[in-house]
Specification:
Order of helices and strands: HHHHHHEEHHH
Radius of gyration: 15 Å
Number of helices: 9
Strand order of the largest sheet: 1-2
Helix content: 55-70%
Number of strands: 2
Largest sheet: 2 strands, antiparallel
């Protein structure tokens, strides 16, 4: 069984010896500053160019992950946990800014690769059976990136094309 599936079934810990419950209990600041949770909470089907040793899904793993209701409930809890750091929340298949975000001038900090983390969340949502949520976050990220912040045009372009690139990869 894939390590991330075992992790979500609470049968194993991450390579940093953290359980799913441990990750959900991380201080909010670690979501922005740390990277250790990303491959475990946000699975995708390709490895990162920065860390090729992290577990990635093949198609069989992806289907199992999508079809397992217990895993999906925990996955969406992970998404809610991470979105909360970014001052966002999920309601059904839509993602919204929290009211306190309107008081902030900047949405994402220009450190900790926060924009890359948003990209990873969008990709993971799409790969893990939640294309509507992925599209909702994509649209909101582009809007907030243009309205609130220091998001580079290149990042806006990546977000704009992110789900199109995923569709191309699925066809290959």
């Amino acid at each position: 069984m894939h390590p991330v599936i075992e992790f979500y079934l609470e049968q194993r810990k991450s390579q940093h010896h953290l359980s799913l419950q441990d990750m959900w209990a991380m201080p909010k600041r670690m979501v922005g500053d740390a990277y250790l949770y990303i491959p475990w909470l946000l699975p995708v089907t390709e490895s990162s160019k920065w860390n090729r040793s992290v577990p990635v899904f093949n198609e069989e793993d992806r289907i199992f992950f999508i079809e397992n209701e217990a895993i999906q409930n925990k996955y969406l809890h992970s998404i809610d946990f991470i979105l909360d750091y970014f001052c966002l929340y999920r309601e059904d298949n839509k993602i919204f800014p929290k009211p306190e975000l309107s008081e902030r001038k900047v949405w994402l900090r220009n450190i900790g690769h926060e924009s890359k983390k948003i990209s990873r969340i969008i990709r993971s949502l799409n790969y893990c059976g939640h294309p509507e949520l992925a599209k909702s976050l994509q649209q909101l990220a582009i809007k907030l990136g243009q309205e609130k912040g220091v998001i580079q045009e290149e990042t806006i372009g990546i977000w704009t094309n992110l789900l199109n690139m995923a569709k191309c990869n699925e066809m290959m």
